[in-house]
Amino acid sequence: MMSIRKVSLRSAATLVSPAAAQLRVRLSTGPQQQQKTFYEFRTYCIRPEQNAAFLKLTNEKVHLRTAHSELIGYWSVEYGGLNQVFHIWKYDSYAQRAGVRAALAQDPSWISEYISKAIPMLRSQDNEVTYLVPWSHLQRPPQEGGVYELVSYHMRPGGPAVWADAFQAAVTSHDAPGYGKLLGAFHSEVGKLNRVHALQWFESADHRAEVRHRSHTDSRLVAAVRDSVVHLDSQKNKLMFPCPFSPMK
């Protein structure tokens, strides 16, 4: 009797009603990450007296680093963080990144010509693993130059199942003629969790300021932002200019 009862209970547990299955979907934190490709965000804080020297050295020697993996963009932060650089690196997998790091450690040119000189110029380094959100694709700006804005949103816990639609509506509402150009939307995987980033491009810092003021009176944007802000814990941004050697200019 005991063995039959166990079998019966086990069989009953496998029968999940459609309503229960739908409840599980609603309780999910969001769609599973399907792409192995990820983007490493790196932020370096440079010693103020070494800022120009660091940028010069990197301009001359960055080819030693890009020989190992793909650089998406490299920017100098102008507003929202002084004496900082921000760069994005693309990897097809964690195994690839581990291989790149191992190869760099054995690259005598990289060590002697760049890293041994650059490290003393830095105050700190920070990195974060991010993925493109499912609806976003990495794009290039419509023209070279301009100013880039990285807006980072720290969302309240709950996951994309709770806030993804509202976040998408708010971010894409700014990607319209006369406004800025959304180049990519990313969510964090390693680093500060529940964080999403929007990388945007504007013709100039003044154009960005004009767009910012205009958006406050655009009912379409205001409505989208209001629906999203209820899921927001905090946000910050920085305006950046591409370095001469940056692939994304």
From TrEMBL:
<dbReference type="GO" id="GO:0005739">
    <property type="term" value="C:mitochondrion"/>
</dbReference>
<dbReference type="Pfam" id="PF07978">
    <property type="entry name" value="NIPSNAP"/>
</dbReference>
<dbReference type="InterPro" id="IPR011008">
    <property type="entry name" value="Dimeric_a/b-barrel"/>
</dbReference>
<feature type="domain" description="NIPSNAP">
    <location>
        <begin position="148"/>
        <end position="247"/>
    </location>
</feature>
<protein>
    <recommendedName>
        <fullName>NIPSNAP domain-containing protein</fullName>
    </recommendedName>
</protein>
<dbReference type="InterPro" id="IPR051557">
    <property type="entry name" value="NipSnap_domain"/>
</dbReference>
<dbReference type="InterPro" id="IPR012577">
    <property type="entry name" value="NIPSNAP"/>
</dbReference>
<feature type="domain" description="NIPSNAP">
    <location>
        <begin position="39"/>
        <end position="136"/>
    </location>
</feature>
<dbReference type="GO" id="GO:0000423">
    <property type="term" value="P:mitophagy"/>
</dbReference>
<comment type="similarity">
    <text>Belongs to the NipSnap family.</text>
</comment>
